[in-house]
């Protein structure tokens, strides 16, 4: 019963998050901001487009494609998993797991990894799509499993971290956490190295485990719950963690954005922020899609805001991604926006999917891949 209630609370809270921008006592929610007219300085050219099943499905899933080498992997909420040539869009293989996929896609070391609402992790051969193994975990998997080739690390909705053998799927270790009373529907994807498994928790903490044994190496609190109600005290880390060199970047909902030294867990800097989708980093700056719909650039040296573009208020933005000299971000109407990294002004815009663009754009070199909510997968380059 407890798990059912947590699921119900999480689902309700996810809807509450999507209504950001209005106060709890407002009589009427403000609508998404109207798109401003822009002068296009950059044009995106579609190279190919494919349909990946039902896309994100009816629940608030956050399925994101992954690239390993020259292959692009994508999954839909009904269990369709595809491998495509990332340059041509040609399909290498397509399988239907007939499972409610809710976490994915993880890819690397010959594996394609997805998690399900039924608490399963499925590993497929990246070359053929054949199933390598299937493992049961403690609860729903709402983010992509990650692997270093030896261990597959999974974070479940109940804030447990589980290490599975990458060859067989057998459980090597499990690390128990006490989740927050009320949480957003989702978890960030673990980050793995040869030595560490790092995860953001619903309590606003980041924890690093020894990847071989699942034993804590360090723990760092990023945000402290504040407020009288449980809703006000939610400080989930749902946006993907970002590792660049030896620095881990993390942002919480209703809390902070911070940089952490992964060797010892020491916090290098922090700044107030609120995001449930994540951040990007490039050119000495950190870019955050704020919960209210603004995109902010933060200078890593001074931790001051360089610019803030609030023209996309309440448009339910995706996590940002650095693309060439720009910052790319999707919105609820399926537009992919390009902003200047220098001052945040709009430089380009492309309609991808009328059902919305929730997944973080995926950038590989001069290519950007956008996965729409209805399952439309589009590859674009700058014209």
Automatic annotation (TrEMBL):
One of its GO terms (biological process) is protein insertion into membrane. Residues 78-308 form the Pyrrolo-quinoline quinone repeat domain. Keywords: Cell outer membrane, Lipoprotein, Membrane, Palmitate, Signal. The keyword Lipoprotein applies. GO terms for cellular component: cell outer membrane. It is a lipid-anchor. It is found in: Cell outer membrane. InterPro entries: BamB, PQQ_b-propeller_rpt, PQQ_rpt_dom, Quinoprotein_ADH-like_sf, WD40/YVTN_repeat-like_dom_sf. Its main location: membrane. Part of the Bam complex. Belongs to the BamB family. Part of the outer membrane protein assembly complex, which is involved in assembly and insertion of beta-barrel proteins into the outer membrane. This is Outer membrane protein assembly factor BamB. It comes from Aquipseudomonas campi. The lineage of its organism: Bacteria, Pseudomonadati, Pseudomonadota, Gammaproteobacteria, Pseudomonadales.
């Amino acid at each position: 019963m407890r798990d059912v209630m947590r699921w119900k609370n999480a689902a309700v809270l996810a809807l509450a998050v999507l209504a950001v921008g209005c106060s709890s006592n407002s009589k009427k929610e403000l609508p998404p901001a109207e798109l401003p007219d822009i002068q296009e300085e950059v044009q995106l050219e579609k190279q190919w487009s494919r349909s990946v099943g039902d896309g994100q499905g009816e629940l608030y899933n956050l399925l994101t494609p992954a690239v390993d080498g020259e292959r692009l992997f994508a999954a839909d909420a009904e269990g369709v998993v595809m491998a495509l040539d990332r340059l041509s869009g040609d399909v290498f293989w397509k399988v239907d797991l007939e499972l409610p996929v809710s976490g994915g896609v993880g890819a690397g070391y010959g594996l394609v990894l997805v998690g399900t609402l039924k608490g399963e992790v499925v590993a497929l051969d990246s070359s053929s799509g054949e199933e390598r193994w299937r493992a049961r975990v403690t609860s729903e998997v709402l983010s992509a499993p990650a692997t270093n080739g030896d261990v597959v690390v999974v974070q479940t909705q109940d804030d447990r971290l589980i290490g599975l053998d990458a060859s067989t799927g057998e459980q090597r270790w499990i690390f128990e956490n006490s989740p927050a009373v009320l949480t957003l529907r989702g978890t960030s994807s673990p980050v793995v190295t040869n030595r560490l498994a790092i995860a953001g928790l619903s309590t606003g903490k980041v924890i690093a485990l020894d990847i071989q044994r699942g034993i804590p190496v360090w723990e760092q609190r990023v945000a402290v719950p504040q407020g009288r109600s449980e809703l006000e005290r939610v400080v989930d880390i749902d946006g993907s963690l970002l590792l660049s060199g030896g620095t881990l970047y993390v942002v919480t909902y209703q809390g902070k954005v911070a940089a952490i030294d992964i060797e010892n867990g020491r916090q290098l800097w922090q700044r107030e922020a609120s995001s449930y989708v994540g951040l990007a980093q490039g050119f000495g700056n950190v870019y955050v899609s704020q919960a209210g719909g603004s995109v902010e650039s933060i200078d890593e040296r001074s931790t001051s805001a360089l610019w803030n573009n609030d023209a996309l208020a309440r448009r339910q933005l995706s996590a940002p991604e650095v693309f060439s000299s720009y910052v790319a971000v999707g919105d609820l109407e399926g537009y992919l926006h390009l902003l200047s990294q220098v001052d945040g002004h709009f430089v380009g815009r492309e309609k991808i999917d009328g059902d919305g663009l929730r997944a973080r754009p995926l950038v590989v070199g001069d290519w950007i891949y956008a996965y729409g909510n209805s399952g439309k997968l589009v590859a674009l380059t700058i014209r």
